[in-house]
Amino acid sequence: MNTFVIFLRAVNVSGKNLIKMADLKDMLLKEGFTNVQTYIQSGNIILQSESNTDETRDKLTTLFVQHFNLDITCFALTEAELMAARDGNPFDSNLPGNRVFITFLSSKINDSERTEINKLQFPAEEFLCTEKHIYYYLPNGAANAKLSNSFFEKKLKIKATGRNINTVNKMLNLLAKTTK
């Protein structure tokens, strides 16, 4: 059995792609996933699957269309992948966890794309684009920030979803309890 952290893109945001986590959990259990846990309303899931990462992600995408009539991009990560993403954070670990974000990308970014996007600068806001993630720090919070998942999706023409460091750490803590 494989354990995954699933991040759903753009679920329960601004009144769009509304899914109740209780309904989601029930559907996943009925579809054969086990040890399903959700965390807050923004599409954070831990589950176990007999399938590999790609098969699990693809099955989830299909199930969202079938059960909720929603085309939701799913990001399936192993514990090691989520830890590596968190540990790759270039920002000071003492910064507020709700102001430092990791954006997970649906495909890898090549060297020339990374070089170009990393040249961009925004006063007060900082970011670093790597091959599979974008890390950014918003000292004044996300509400009026220039940097966001939407910004990076448009610039890179890619699907992405982001979580703040607090959420990433919470998911790793829940995952540790699940795999014991």
UniProtKB/TrEMBL annotation:
Top-rank taxon: Bacteria
InterPro entries per UniProt: DUF1697
Name of the protein described by the UniProt record: DUF1697 domain-containing protein
Organism: Sphingobacterium zhuxiongii
